Amino acid sequence: MSRVAGVDEAGRGPLAGPVYAAAVVLAPGCGLPLDDSKRLSPDRRRRLFPQIRAQAVGCAIASASAREIDQLGILAATLLAMSRALDGLGSLAEAALIDGRQVPDVSLPCQAVVRGDQTVPAISAASILAKVARDELMVELDGRFPAYGFARHKGYPTRRHIDALMRHGPCPEHRRSFAPVRRAMDRLT
């Protein structure tokens, strides 16, 4: 099998915004210096993003909304985003390697790879695409909801974010099923 997609997610831990996933089929011999997105600087990720898209046989980015996260739970929503990303590849992939321990329910063969974002180039590429796309959305959300500082912390539970959440309550992009958001809602009622 030569067309194996790498799949990874970004944004499971934040208190706000969607969870993103990307699926990438790399061309054989892709020479990009890929690594887990968490081990790369934001600037390095942004520079690699268009290079990955240009050199990939195919790639797709998808998400599951904060509302879907609240309805399904973060794991199921993550797997939903992954299946959407794989669907976005159409017939470009014959199989998929998924970062982590669980695989989405899709028609093509999938294999979970623990720490795949550090060892499988296609998963590293997917990690970068998902992270950059999600970060860009969080910067956009910062313009709509400036009280929370999304551009700075990307929705993660930093001290500044928790303080803003306690002061202002949640915005429509907050994940109401997450404990800090529930506590802020309870405090304001």
> How is the biggest beta sheet arranged?
5 strands, mixed
List the secondary-structure elements in sequence, H or E. EEHEHHEEHHHHH
Given helix and strand content, the structural type is: alpha/beta
CATH homology superfamily of the largest domain: Ribonuclease H-like superfamily/Ribonuclease H
Overall CATH class of the largest domain = Alpha Beta
What percentage of the residues does DSSP assign to strands (E)? 15-25%
* Average of the residue pLDDT scores: 95
Looking at the structure, the CATH topology of the largest domain is: Nucleotidyltransferase, domain 5
Overall structural domain count = 2
Tally of DSSP β-strands: 5
- The percentage helix is 40-55%
Distance between the termini: 56 Å
Q: What report would you give on this structure?
A:
- It is a single chain.
- Strands 3-2-1-4-5 form a five-stranded mixed β-sheet, sandwiched between helices.
- Helix 2 packs across helix 3 (74-88) and helix 7 packs parallel to helix 8.
- The protein folds into two domains: 4-142, 2-Layer Sandwich (Nucleotidyltransferase, domain 5), CATH 3.30.420; 146-188, no CATH class.
- It contains eight helices and five strands.
- The chain is α/β, with parallel strands linked by helices and 189 residues long.
- The model has no long low-confidence stretch (mean pLDDT 95).
- It is 47% helix and 17% strand.
- It has helices at 42-55, 66-72, 74-88, 116-119, 121-144, 150-153, 159-168, 179-188; strands at residues 4-10, 19-26, 56-64, 95-99, 110-113.
